[in-house]
Specification:
Elements (H helix, E strand, L loop, with lengths): L1 H16 L6 E3 H14 L7 H20 L7 E3 H9 L4 H19 L7 E2 H10 L4 H11 L6 E2 L1 H13 L15
Antiparallel strand pairs: 1-2, 3-4
Length: about 180
């Protein structure tokens, strides 16, 4: 059951990263994801937030290819992605991969600049990647563990790490990317 849960989570993550739907992820998918978020949030393409998001997604891709080998054409298949991540449950390596991306996502979503993301900001960001408002609001409530109506960097990062490392089917972090 544990291996099945992890594989389902990783395959779900892969499907969200495969922006062009070709069955592989590549650096271009991470660039497209960044552009989709920037456009969806109405952020100027040349802003500091946009540059930080693009840099963070580039870092994610580079870190990912250190964990999961890309093929000769610089792509990673769905199976290689899920299998490779299942072999890398090291939280410190996962944290090093996802932290810059989570920081940049939070900064982009944080429209009022208060250092946290409220449900409306979170919903807008997730809408930009195709998550419905009701589902984004449900995800937000799950991740807002202290129930204060705000997601901090620590809460968001804890959920991301839990997604990649927890074998507990009921872990809140499993919901960070929608229903698995």
């Amino acid at each position: 059951m544990t291996a099945d849960l992890m594989r389902r989570k990783f395959e779900h993550r892969f499907d969200l990263l495969d922006t062009d739907g070709d069955g592989y992820i590549a650096q271009t998918d991470f660039t497209a994801l960044a552009d989709r978020l920037i456009d969806g949030m109405g952020e100027p393409a040349d802003s500091d937030r946009s540059r930080a998001l693009r840099d963070a997604k580039e870092h994610y891709w580079t870190s990912l290819t250190a964990l999961v080998a890309a093929d000769g054409s610089g792509r990673i298949s769905r199976d290689d992605f899920a299998t490779g991540l299942a072999r890398t449950p090291d939280a410190s390596r996962i944290s090093a991969m996802v932290r810059p991306s989570v920081e940049a996502d939070l900064a982009l979503a944080d429209r009022d600049g208060d250092g946290v993301v409220d449900v409306d900001e979170f919903t807008a960001l997730f809408h930009a990647i195709g998550v419905s408002a009701p589902e984004a609001q449900e995800i937000f409530r799950t991740l807002d563990r202290d129930g204060d109506g705000e997601l901090t960097l620590d809460e968001w990062l804890a959920a991301a790490l839990e997604f990649f490392t927890s074998t507990d089917e009921t872990a809140p972090g499993n919901r960070i990317l929608g229903r698995v």
